[in-house]
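Can anyone check this?
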Amino acid sequence: MDLLPVKRALLSVTDKSGLVDFARFLVDNGVELVSTGGTKKKIAEAGLPVTSVSDVTEFPEILGGRVKTLHPRIHGGILADKDDPSHMQTLSELDIAPFDLICVNLYDFAKAAEQELPLKDAVEQIDIGGPCMLRASAKNYHSIAVVPGPEYYERIMEELKGDGLTLGFRKEMAARTFELTSRYDGMISQYLASHEE
């Protein structure tokens, strides 16, 4: 699809700068918000309607927050090809609602690395669910938009003042996202290789 209208978005961010204004813009434009943990709390404290990921998955966050979004009700809604009737039929049969926009930024592993934490503590700052959602959204840019950081909020809001997000814009965001996840993995790889257990 060329123009993607945005009706449902998942927001899960470490860097919360600009979050409330972005979330308010989305709500004011009829977008249903789904969110996790601290992101959900900040959006709710601003008086905006937001649904917990746990309410979508019907499963609690577990293992100290290690598992929140790794669930078919999230990733099915991200990875469904909206131009493929069989994908949409599967979502319908399983009562999974598709997402149109995923806004994620990652745990700050660079900060953990600077603090010279013990390796076992540092690895707790390796984001797993975030890169999974980013990569899934970037892969499926024909059907969904990915927002990999607050520096893109203004552009997204400007684009959404039209009839939807263009395929070209979504492809650009997908490319930037894969670049970001590649750098993130590279940083972690170097850190693990250079530190003793």
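Reply from J.R.: I decoded it. The mean pLDDT is 90.
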